[in-house]
């Protein structure tokens, strides 16, 4: 019937191949064969699964990984290219170390989940979830020594936890009743910075102060210190971050720039923010750089140990790109379903850092089910304590804003305080809610 | 002692003032635990599930699905056991209510500092929270509200109790000269919206079914037979809007409240010989009912109006012999690779449309009125119009041009299942490029579909029926369907529309054409 020969236009036959979405092209060695890919050999239809548009960016060559997504150790042969110092650090980790990090990761995830619920119940104004980034945070945070100092952005709940900050102290600022919440000096953990990237300059300045104190390169582990600045992939596009790189590099400041590349700067994917892996930026600034699987806590810990030692020794700054994934929303005000797909989230769920470590612990006999259950129980208790604490938080008087304007008493501040108190007293009673039915 | 906790709608974004109640996930009588999902709400930003703050039993749902409520409005009542420390800030409210005679001011202040639920900074509540300044109040007594304000400024002549029209205050503090001298502003929630309008509007809008914070029905004014009626009907008097003099709840108020809560049922009115729809509020003569426009309905209406009156629609039709498509569907259903997915003629029609658009990419476009440009989309996000319990939604399969037939089948299955469950997310409906409306599933031959806004074409896929058809020179029973393609004549001319529809038909008539064009 079809006598009219159709002009078959070869140029229009093939649509844009989905493989184009692979960041930076090379999908080198599929070290971590995902379960889906493992099944893919049977039928032609399934072969398309191997080309799903959500490739693992950690399979780009040069990304350090010791534990594959399904929880097994990466074969020895594939580690040949890894920096020997990093390998040595990874080998040094004991079952005890891994269990401790596992516990911290589970606790932080549960805390994070509870805080998100509290926001949904109207107890917090906002909450930035860290779900999915536990390995990047716990792994790097646990490599720190007490005298090191951290400049976090606002999502580093895991680092706060390993720095000894009571997780509950993170809540008041997100309830809108405090400017900070913990003692940055006591914990070596600075206050959260809500402005993107500005704290990388603060961190660099702090590191230069350490240099001037002479606490770098003495060889005395009790004395040498380093600074870590945590920021995200989006921050790398900020001028401040690039300036910090220049400063730190040119003066060899003892600072580790720890970039958690969680693939999304709110709604902008990494692929539209950079044309090269972020780790490659280090070379341009003359900064030593590592790219690590940020969901592999072993690799993150090992790389950060080496990076910190590099900085403490006076050899200059280090950039670490920890490739991870923000499994939740940017904050509770954001709706990721508007800009990313379920399939992508699903692909990353299979690379979950906690599942990966749990599988490893069980496979290598480093943890018992009893231990895992105990940690889960602890997490539940933590969540309950967090809930109770948050609900009992009270609003401080407005005059606290005068308390921390200066370290010492200041006559002008005292005067302004007195004026304000008089002004506030000119209203009838406390400034109470006039929405009677809200309670 | 058990306590009643009220869950006030929180601001789940930053500075949102209202949200739609989409789906209640709990019902009265359900036992709930902390962080169980209780309700799904839709804000200007997203669909959000709200977790329960308490362990307890659901006693009341204060707002209906589809209703838009202000942040801060109580939406749910949960009865909790009195566990010290676990109940949190709201326990204060319950305690204050129970102790009755205590100074309102004290409990007010207590809540302010005991961690009462934050209900959205940046909303309408904040500015009104201030008490009037002393040295300003005296002179300005213009409105009733500022009249009260002015008297506040004077050395406490107990102005609230001087307002007998406020039933709550009257009931709670019967002695006008209470020694505690409660700070007079803001009596706790007038049960009736009526007399003290100034105060009522300071809280939240009149839309709230319930505006009293008290935890028992004691403060609602109603005659005993009406109370009995309410009890028999299972109506909480607090949820009834009173219309009687002085804020008294009347018999009619209770009955109309009961009707509001009725589920969708069919009813027969006197004089009717067949049942009619009876949800919503029945009019006085029993001949009409009114229901509020729910969010999806409203959005559908807006989208359809916008589309119909901006894009000049043209529809072209084509009747096609799809016998080969039906055979292909039957074969694919036997195919091992399609074993666990449903294969339907719609799948082949979707593929046919994709192939047709690939051959005529100019139709994958939209009109940018503002910039006077035509936007050509180098991708196909294929929308499927789906009738769901919440109304019409059009989720789309992203990058449908880049996936295999098997993947397309999977995507359609997920998309329709998600839509049917009412869980389609806004992102899944945005950025569509073309839509199929499968009117055939309702047995309809065809129609003239209205474009999904922002798209330039929509295909109606009619019912497939066996009909006499001239096939190889003889009349044979063949599977035949009608296809209709509406397009936006601003950027698609008749020729292009006709070619696209013709190509869709050619693939359906002879699916092997897909090999040539694919």
UniProtKB/TrEMBL annotation, chain B:
Note down the stretches annotated as region Disordered. Answer: 83-156, 175-219
Compositional bias of kind Low complexity: 138-156, 194-208
| Cellular component per GO, a single term | cytoplasm
Q: InterPro entries annotated for this entry? A: 2-oxoacid_DH_actylTfrase, 2-oxoacid_DH_E2_comp, Biotin_lipoyl, CAT-like_dom_sf, E3-bd_dom_sf, PSBD, Single_hybrid_motif
Q: Name one Pfam family in it.
A: 2-oxoacid_dh
Q: What class of enzyme is it?
A: transferase
Superkingdom of source? Bacteria
Hey, which family's this protein in?
Belongs to the 2-oxoacid dehydrogenase family.
User: Can you say what this protein is called?
Assistant: Dihydrolipoamide acetyltransferase component of pyruvate dehydrogenase complex
- Give the lineage: Bacteria, Bacillati, Actinomycetota, Actinomycetes, Micrococcales
